[in-house]
Amino acid sequence: MEPRSSVAKSGVALGVLLLIGLPVAAQNSKVKTNYLSHIEPCNGVGATPLDVRIDACTAFIEASQGTTAALAIAYNNRGNAYTAKGDYDKAIRDFDQSIALKPTYAKAFNNRGVAYLRKGEYELAIEAFDDAIKLDPDYVAAFVNRAGAYLKKNDHQRAAHDYDEAIRLQPDSQAARSGRCWTRAVLGAWQAALEDCDRALQSGSTSAAVYDSRGLIHLKMVSSVRRSPTTILPCEPPRNWRARFLAAGLPS
Questions:
Q1: Do 76 and 105 contact (CB within 8 A), yes or no?
Q2: 3-class SS of residue 188
Q3: How much is the mean pLDDT over the chain?
Q4: Among positive and negative, which fits the CA dihedral 30, 31, 34, 36?
Q5: What are the CB-based long-range contacts (under 8 Å, 24+) for 188-197?
Q6: What percent of the chain clears pLDDT 70, i.e. is strictly above it?
Q7: Average pLDDT over residues 139-153
Q8: What is the CA radius of gyration of the chain?
Q9: Of 56, 110, 107, nearest to 78 (Cα)?
Q10: Residue 127 near residue 150 (C-beta atoms within 8 A)
Q11: Of 29-43, 47-61, 203-217, the least confident
Q12: Which residues contact 57 (CB under 8 A, 6 or more apart)?
């Protein structure tokens, strides 16, 4: 999904910022080697285990040799690792610190929103996504995530609007297509919902949630035709696993 590419971009930025911020003496010492060795694991390069990522980011932060911007990225990366482990309070504290260091860092706001979303604090999640979008109006993941928070609050119209915006910005976003498919189905726009599910699958999605949505929509459409051309049957509430999928959020 989209967030992995965003994390990789953060890693490149961290390395560049470190090299710029280090004094010349440090660049020519063994300290530099030990210090820079934490960059790749902190950035989560490859299949780095979460605990290794956390330890690397912690070592990087405690070394206090990076620029302010580099430290903000390190706190953000460690926060993402804590979120992946389900330790949302620690994650939120790291995102708070990242934002304090770099108040214009949209990714940290988005990721704080993801932690709040997974924690079930939907209003705080929406506020964080609002801030991320204010800083970066083209932030697709933040629109998708805010839509997920609105879905958890059963505000399907606002969710649909955010999915619309995400798709306008990135037409082949699998997360946005899948989310809008379900949202349109709930609102009774079945044909439009099917088109979104189909686009998600054409983009390479293998998510069970997309197939589940499409199957349910076909079932409802057939049932509606058999009963009456004017009968509109509401979709059932999301299954627990599907609700978790939509509320998982996209870190970056």
A1: yes
A2: coil
A3: 82
A4: negative
A5: 188/232, 188/234, 188/235, 190/217, 190/220, 190/221, 193/217, 194/218
A6: 75
A7: 98
A8: 21
A9: 56
A10: no
A11: 29-43
A12: 38, 42, 74, 75, 77, 78, 81
Note whether 90 and 54 are within 8 A (CB).
no
CB 90 within 8 A of CB 57: no
Sequence-separated (6 or more) residues with CB below 8 Å from residue 141? 2, 3, 6, 110, 175, 250, 251, 252
> For the chain, what percentages of helix, strand and coil (3-state, to nearest 5) are there?
75, 0, 25
Cα distance between residue 113 and residue 104, in whole Å? 15
pLDDT at 197 over 80: yes
The string of DSSP letters for 60-106 reads HHHHT-S-HHHHHHHHHHHHHHHHHHT-HHHHHHHHHHHHHH-TT-H
The pair of three-digit structure tokens given for residue 101, joined into one six-digit string:
């260091």
- Distance set, CA 34 to CA 31, 64, 72, 73 (Å): 5, 13, 20, 19
Per the listing, tokens 């990714």 go with 107
CA distance 186 to 198: 17
Q: Where are the beta strands (DSSP E) in 11-63?
A: none
- The answer, as to whether pTM is greater than 0.85, is no
d(CA 249, CA 142): 9
* pLDDT per position as a tens digit, 73-87: 999 999 999 999 999
User: In the structure encoding, which two tokens stand for residue 252, read together?
Assistant: 């970056």
Tell me the one-letter amino acid at 219.
Answer: L
Neighbours of 75 (CB within 10 A): 25
